[in-house]
Structure formats: structure tokens, C-alpha cells
Specification:
Layout (H helix, E strand, L loop, with lengths): L1 H33 L2 E5 L2 E4 L3 H5 L2 E2 L2 E2 L2 H31 L6 H9 L6 H16 L10 H29 L3 H9 L4 H12 L1 H17 L2 H6 L11 H11 L4 H31 L1
Antiparallel strand pairs: 1-2, 3-4
Helix pairs in contact: 3-6, 3-9, 4-6, 5-6, 6-9, 7-8, 9-12, 11-12
Amino acid sequence: MEKATKRYWPLFVLPTMAAFCIGFILPFVYGIFLSFCKFTTVTDFQWVGFENYAKIFVVNGKLDTTFLHALWYTALYTIVTSVIINIVAFAIAMALTKGIKGTNAFRTIFFMPNLIGGIVLSYIWLMIFNSFLQRVSQTIVSTQWHAFWGMVIVMCWQQIGYMMIIYIAGIQNVPADLIEAAQIDGANNKQVLTNVIIPTLRPTITVCTFLTLTNGFKMFDQNLALTGGNPARKSELLALNIYNTMYGKTGWQGVGQAKAVIFFILVAIISLLQNRITAGKEEA
């Protein structure tokens, strides 16, 4: 059986590799090529070199700050949501692993928001926000910071339950003898948490941090439904900025594609740095 597996393994790998190449590698490479072209369809293109990349920042001789604004706005949004989601999800997970009554019900309730689609969820919260804000003659898009904190609340409400489940699984896998040994040595609850539980949960923390970072940078549905980038494109995150460039201006598809390439590079760099940092801590 083992010899047969070694002999015929290409037959098992080939379908997956073919699907991966057709569905990811070829579109990705072609997308990079199109970022250097002016086009309206993927078959109607004209090579323009780095002109598309220049237009990201300068249009008709004037500095265009919309992409830079979306970049730092997205970075701030990602940092804030990642910190809040991981801290709150970990705290809830710790509470729900203490054997309190109704634990399963609480897990279900916290996880349920993750089952609702981003568009539907955002429209629900849009009505909630505006119903409160209209009492002071405001809306969710009155300022970019109204929109910012509105999107933070929606993202956290949706993602905390999902991260909580991952943290619960990690906490339940912490060896009980390590905790008992620490308590026998006189460690209090805080010392057990910081010196036993958290170090053991580093792989789990890595996964949750990676997911929250990538979800923050890639958020699109909630941004589109909740604010639409208003007011005056000040609440545009990167994904929505790329979408509006691609489909909001005729002849700007190449510029939108160039933004998408930069977006991919940024997310890849952040992911690699995050994995490197957490891997270094795990080895230490």
C-alpha cells in the first residue's frame, strides 16, 4: 500500500495543484501584469508601465490623498479592532471555562453574530446607530469618527464570539498538571494566568491575532453597507477604496489594480512579520 501511494501520489496531487494554479496563481500573476496596463476589460489592455502606480498618489499634477488616508485609517481600524477583539474574547473564554452554569448557552449566544452575513449585520446596526444618533441630530456618517467607531462596534460584535471559541479550545488544552504544580508552588491566579496559561496559549494567540489583523485589513462588506465611505470618502477602508477606484471611474481600472497589488504586498508583509514575531516568542 505504501509503495502504491509513493508511485501514484502525483495522480492525487494533480487535481488540487491544477485547481490552485487555475483559481489562484494564474489570476494573481495576470493581475500583477494588468496593474501596469490601462484596460477596460481583461482582454483589452495597453501597456503604460508605472503610470497607474503614479496615479495612486498624483492626479493631474495634484497630490491625491484618498489612498493614503484609506491606508492609515485602515491601519488604525485594524489595530483597534484586533486589540479589543482579542482581549475581550480571551476574557470571555476564561470566564466560560470556569464551570459556571449556562456555559453552553453563553457560548452559543456569543457565537451567533458570526453566523450573520456582513451586509445584513451592517444594515441592522445602521438602523440602531441612526436611531440613537438622530436624537442629537447626527448620523453614523456625520463625521469619519462616528463612522470609525460604528465599524469598530460592528466588527467586534461579529468577531468576538468566533475568537472566543478558538481561545476556549486553547484554554481547555492547557495541561491541568501545570496549573496544579504552579498553585502548589504558591502561585496566585494572576501568576498562573501570566506564567502558565498565556505562555501555553501562544499558538492560539498567534492564530487569533492573524485572523483579526487580516479581517481588519480586508473588511469590505460592513464598510460598504454601514457608511459607503461617507462622509466625503473619509471612512473608506482600503478594500472599499480599491473597489471605488475600479468601478467608480471610467478608465481607472488599471489604477485600481495597482492599488490591489500594493494592498496585497502590505497584507503579506504584516502577516509575515506577525508570524515571525510570534514564532520567535514561542521558541523563546
